[in-house]
Amino acid sequence: MTAPSHVPLFYVKQKFAMTTNRYELVGAGAGGAEGQSLGVAQQKRMAFKEEVTFYTDESRSQAVFSFRARRKIDLNAGYDVFDAQGQQLGFFRKDFGKSLLRSTFHLEGPGYQAVGQERSQAVALVRRFADIPFLPIHFDFTTPDGRTVLSVQRQSTVRDRYTVTVGDPALDFRVAAAVAVGLDALMQR
């Protein structure tokens, strides 16, 4: 997979695995139907320092990008997104204080800066006190002037599945995919 710079709509599907969090990235075809595979991601569970690597396919023989925690333990965890050569593409972090009642993330990269927050305060509060597996979770990342650059919507399915809409062409697909997977992996879904 040569990572395209902009993919306006794609899906993230969590796959069953005993010792890892695994995800499949799938492009959206005509009418929103699932299209071609855009790669797979894998995160080792219980790792001391969070890192997720994205590969071209299920063989996991060619890594194409990744994200990694800046520090081993950090309540305001920050994650750098890197290309296959180790060049930074973007950065996102969880805002611990604001996330107590409503999960909030900050996103930065060349030409954009945005804050992502759970769309529904009511759903955010319910999630704090009850583990309801089919509860939809929606995040919108907006710029200071109110433009939505990224939306991630969890579908009501048995396995976690997300619809990712990238509204800003400046947001690299690899950063959008890292954030979408990060929302699931880092919120312990």
Topology diagram in text:
Layout: E1 9-15, E2 20-28, E3 34-44, E4 51-55, E5 63-69, E6 78-83, E7 88-94, H1 96-99, E8 104-109, E9 112-118, H2 121-129, E10 138-142, E11 148-154, E12 161-166, H3 173-186
Antiparallel strand pairs: 1-2, 1-12, 2-3, 3-4, 4-5, 5-6, 6-7, 7-8, 8-9, 9-10, 10-11, 11-12
Class from helix and strand fractions: mainly beta
Strand tally, please?
12
Radius of gyration: 15 Å
Described by strand count, sense and barrel closure, the largest sheet is: 12 strands, antiparallel, barrel
Number of helices: 3
Strand content: 35-45%
Average pLDDT score: 85
- Strand order in the sheet with the most strands: 1-2-3-4-5-6-7-8-9-10-11-12
Secondary-structure element order, N to C: EEEEEEEHEEHEEEH
What is the end-to-end distance? 26 Å
| Poorly predicted residue ranges | none
What general form does the structure show?
globular
Helix content: 10-25%
Molecular structure report:
By secondary structure, the chain is mostly beta strands. The model has no long low-confidence stretch (mean pLDDT 85). The protein has 3 helices and 12 strands; from the N terminus they run E-E-E-E-E-E-E-H-E-E-H-E-E-E-H.
